[in-house]
Amino acid sequence: MAKINPANHVPISGGSEPHRESSCTETTPLRSLRELNGITSLLHSPTGAATESRTSTSIVDNVSTRNGASSMVDDMCDHRETWSSGMDFLLSIIGFAVDLAAVWRFPYYAFKNGGGTFLIPYFIMLIIGAVPLLYLELLIGQYHRQGPISVWTQIAPIFQGIGFCAAVVSFYTSFYYNNILAWSFFYLFASLTPELPWSSCQNQSWAGPNDWASPTCDSNDTIAHYGNASAKGLPRSAAQDYFDFFVLGLNKDSGFDNIGWPRPQLVGCLALTYVVLFFALFKGVRSSGKVVWVTAIAPYCILLILFIRGIFLPGAVDGVQYYMTFDLKRLLEAQIWIDAAVQVFYSTGAGFGVHLALASYNKFHHNCRRDCLITVAANAAASIFSGFVVFAYLGYMSARQNVGIDHVAKNGPGLVFQVYPEAISTLPGAPFWSVLFFLMLLTLGLDSSMGGMESILTGICDYFKDFFQRTRHSRLVLTATICLLSFCVGLVNCTPVRSVTYHTI
User: Fold this and answer.
1) Among 99, 199, 264, 338, which lies 20 to 30 A Cα-Cα from 355?
2) pLDDT for 167-195, tens place per residue?
3) Are 307 and 385 in contact (CB under 8 A)?
4) Helix, strand, or coil here: 485?
């Protein structure tokens, strides 16, 4: 039954929809219509005048109500910024879900856990874990239209700590994730040369007096020793030397007791990363929604180009066959299920507050269930297809070096900054393919980083809503402040001591 508001004797519902503050003044019929989810009890009020009844009836006739709320009232009285189109939102959540993990973690997990066998636990985790969580976050964000902090305050104030934790985790993630984008910028600029600097040990013009070059560097095609090969006296590739000693700045004294100074090259690339993020985010979803049309679509196009080029290389077919090898006995091992869960939950990004923040800018009746299913399908398709691309080139490297694929397969940054660049350096027109590859890494990483930063910005703006609505250019200043703070902390990751632990990413 409807309750009576003693202030104006207007019947209101028992709280079926959370109250949303609005800067516009609602008439009595409109207020009753919102509070009763589109069904006004004013028509049935014994004290309601005939004029009010006719007015309310007219409103009910002209307002299309769905899912328990009035979209017309939302549009009139809720001045929250919304996406320019539904595609902007869809590409944003796809771009956040399809990140660097699709290129360097999924193919390795598939190789490690029996090839095609890994797809069985992967899809099970995707269906029973990722889809419900992603859909739930989109529903909560879209219904309450609040950021990841204040949305929990509306649900239950005792839970607002969850929102603070989500924002802090996203902020912590930006410290190292944006550093990987700085590495990608570094390699992109280094590729703009007639000959790639990591193409051979004889082409070590990059090695300065302070760069510790490995005495075991060898450009022979039989090299396949990755990891800490120099410590074991094993030969290393030129790509390894370039990444470890020039990009990361490792040296004989690198360690936690000798932090060292940030690498100037990496500092410049990191600053460029935050400049790009600032201009993509400072106007809110109106600007970031346009950027994702490039960053979310480009990786698929570049992956297709790289696959077409790689599949015709010697040994590429063997690499793809190795990638899709089935070993059903692996399903009895716990590790394959753990790896599948890690890949699914980290890739979809549930729990970071990003989906809550992005969905809060949707219109109330937006079909987020459709977007959820499309996002999950796009994420799975990108991960599986990137495996074909990566293992086509690993098969080529295996055939070129006359070793097994297990000797060249690698997880994490080592795959995309050592193994893959070495494979590209052996191709005709290597600089062109290198530029394409690192552009793909940048586009994969940028929209994921944009989603994490937007989660922080939206959370702060909505939690201190009154202040940011009164202050001019507050969004611009907040974006610049968050980017600057994250950049300053990220400088630690430009030092050799942080580079020592990059294998743990």
Assistant:
1) 338
2) 999 999 888 899 999 999 999 999 998 88
3) yes
4) helix
